[in-house]
């Protein structure tokens, strides 16, 4: 039997019992669609988190107060903070030749008011270096000027949400805001930048770091952002920061220094594993679809026993009968997989339209893998019914025994 004859016979068999064919197509389509959708969600989560950390800046090294460690003796302590980070600590990092910019951070919330309008806003204390490190863009005015970081100054840069909520259509530049008990003059308005790691950059006010320490009555820093001079300088900058901090803290290594690449690599591994896990769980539905195909084909063979007996009586060998039924199972699996792929991609596009900031898309390996597994599953689970059909005795088959 020629290949075109096999295809013609298979097509006739599939269209001859449409209800049975639709059931097998539906089962396989659900499995492939689930794999595509779930892996797209996992991949989208990985890209979303990666983009969030990438927005923090480039060639970034982050310094946290305290060091994660486990020590003996009751009670166990994790992450003890023997000493706070200070502004002097941050400024000392400029001693390293691998460091380009240093932005000390003080973060808190305070009421911000202008005339009769008041709003609770996140206050970020830093220096002019923050603009270069975080790639901040201004819609109006200018960012914090380069002044002595240890001296406070009464000026601020506000986010677009703060500007709209407090000033409306009134020009904000040059106006005086009250933050807590202090007054600050608005010198700039940031461009809309959206959310970053759960922080709304549009709804914040940036003031000099020394002014923030005075406002919140603290000497300690939340963290220090350091930008290395290049990607090749990251390791050198990280080592230099540890060395400088150790010298300043009486030989104690009581800070945590991590690079942006290390954080990104960790999250990449976590979300890649998560994507494989949810994809594997969805692939179980393909096995269920395969079992359904096997059962339906066993029923079909019992209904087509006389047809099989006639083929054998006309001289069709067992291998040809096996090929016919395997072709039927394979074609159904492939068509069901393609329908499931179309449904999965359509659902992914719909989710991307509903949540435009979530970069959802199915990875190529998931698409190829889902279609391949669907085809292999159909062939494997179709093997038993096809083999049973191939082994039928023609005389018994023609007498339907």
Structural notes for this entry:
The protein is built from 12 helices and 12 strands. With about 400 residues, the protein is of the alpha+beta class. The strands form 2 sheets. The protein has a 6-stranded mixed beta barrel. A hairpin with a 2-residue loop joins strand 2 and strand 3. It is elongated and about 100 Å long. It starts with a helix and ends with a helix. Mean pLDDT is about 85; it is low at about 75-80.
Question: What is this structure, in a nutshell?
Answer:
The protein is of the alpha+beta class and 401 residues long. It is built from twelve helices and twelve strands.
| Number of distinct beta strands | 12
Q: Could you tell me how far the N terminus lies from the C terminus, measured between alpha carbons in angstroms?
A: 26 Å
Spans where pLDDT lies below 50 across 5 or more residues: 74-79
Note the total helix count. 12
Q: How is the main sheet built?
A: 6 strands, mixed, barrel
Strand order of the largest sheet: 2-3-10-5-7-6
Sequence-ordered SSE layout with sheet pairings:
Layout: H1 3-16, H2 18-54, E1 60-65, H3 87-92, E2 99-114, E3 117-126, H4 129-134, E4 138-141, E5 155-158, H5 160-167, E6 176-179, E7 182-190, E8 195-196, E9 199-200, E10 204-208, H6 209-216, E11 223-228, H7 234-248, E12 255-259, H8 260-303, H9 305-313, H10 318-354, H11 364-390, H12 394-398
Parallel strand pairs: 3-10, 5-7
Antiparallel strand pairs: 1-11, 1-12, 2-3, 2-6, 2-11, 4-7, 5-10, 6-7, 8-9
Relevant terms:
single chain, 401 residues, alpha+beta, two-stranded antiparallel ribbon, 12 helices, elongated
